[in-house]
Every structure is written in structure tokens, then in C-alpha cells.
Amino acid sequence: YFMERQANLFFWIALVMIALSALIAWFLAYHLGRPLKRITVAAQRLAVGDYKVRLLVESSDEMGQLARNFNDMAAALEQAEQSRRRWVADISHELRTPLSVLRGELEAIMDGIRPLTYDAIKSLSGDVMRLNRLTEDLYQLALSDQGALSYRKFLLDPVPILQKDLAAFIPDFNQKRINVKWTNRLSKPLLVNADQDRLSQLFRNLLTNSLNHTDPEGQVEIMIQHIKDELL
User: Fold this and answer.
1) Following DSSP, what letter does each residue of 114-181 receive, concatenated?
2) What angle separates helix 2-47 from helix 62-110, to the nearest 10 degrees?
3) What sign does the CA torsion over 23, 24, 26, 31 have?
4) 16-72 tens-digit pLDDT
5) Looking at the predicted structure, is the pLDDT value of residue 178 above 70?
6) Could you tell me the CA-to-CA distances from 150 to 120, 146, 198, 201, 204 in Å, in that order?
């Protein structure tokens, strides 16, 4: 009789332990699964481009840290998307200007309003060169983002490169009535180890910014000097 009572007692204890384990497992699954479901839904919204989605941080444990990391990632993606849209708008604006000028000049020539002279062809060539510079900058930027941008460095004198790039921009500066002041304080040519194409691209970007952000009747000063071990 005693052994039978002990067996029944062990049976009920085991049954209670199983029920208690199931209850604890359900409780943990519910409280852990609920935030995981919210993260899953938020990740699906993020995947389709809803970068404003955010998670409510309810704790300071690992799940709370995961929610904070998700919010940081969503904020970074939202900022990147806004930057991409601004960049596309800026590029569209930069491309629209030479295209509009080029279209207007070609229509004027076709309508007989403007004669097809050397000056007209030179003006059209300048617009084409501006478009070429913009598309080349876009291509180089894409290569840079992909990590495929290559450099071919050798010793060169950067001053003639800058002079050549500046000469290409002089008509644009003159059209905007911007005075360009050139000062070369070097007593002799100095060589630097650089990539000629990348250096020219840098000069063109600086000249483009100077052209775009200098008021008409303004002045752009370009000074070249050697201070200690730096070429400025």
C-alpha cells in the first residue's frame, strides 16, 4: 500500500511539473515571440521601402537592444534615401541646364534664327563638353561607390593641369561676369605623385562649385604657393 501511494504521488508530481513546464514555456514563448513578431512585421515594411517604421523599445535587455539597433538602421536607411533623392534632383538640375541651352541653340539654327557659324558650333561644343563632364563625374562616382575606382599615379606638375581646366571654364566665368584672378607664386615647377585624371576631376569640381556659388560680378581667386612641404 505504501509503494502504491508513493507511485501515485510521483505520478501527480510529474504531471504537475509537466503542466508547470508547459505553462512557463508558453509564457516565455508569448513574451519573447510578441516582440519578434513586431520586428518581423517592421522588417517587412522596411524591405518594401517604408523607412519611417520604428520599433517601441520596452526593455533594456537583448530584445530592447535589438529594437534600438533596428531603429538606428531604419534611420540610417531613411537618411540615405533622402540623400539619394536630393542627389538625383541635383543631378537632374545640372543636366537640365546644358540640355536646355543646347536644345534652344539647335532649334534656333534649324529655324534659321541663328546662322550656323563657327561661333555657334563652338558654343554647341561647349554645351556638349559640359554634359560630358557631368556624365563622367557620375560614372566616376559610381565606380567610387563600388570600390572599383583605380588610380594611376606618377610624378607630375599640377599647375598646367589646373591651367588647362581653368581655360575650359573661362567662357562660363565670362558669361556670368565673374573675374578670375590667377596668382602663381612658385619660383619653379614642383612635382607631386598623383593621378592626372583624378586631379583634373578635382579641379573641375572645384571650378564648377566656384562657378555655381559665386554671384555675378564677383571674383574667384586662384593662388598657388609652396609652404614648407605643402603645395597650396
Assistant:
1) S---HHHHHHHHHHHHHHHHHHHHHHHHHHHHHT-----EEEE-HHHHHHHHHHHHHHHHHHTT-EEE
2) 20
3) positive
4) 787 777 777 777 666 666 777 788 888 888 888 888 888 887 777 777 888 888 888
5) yes
6) 37, 11, 9, 13, 19
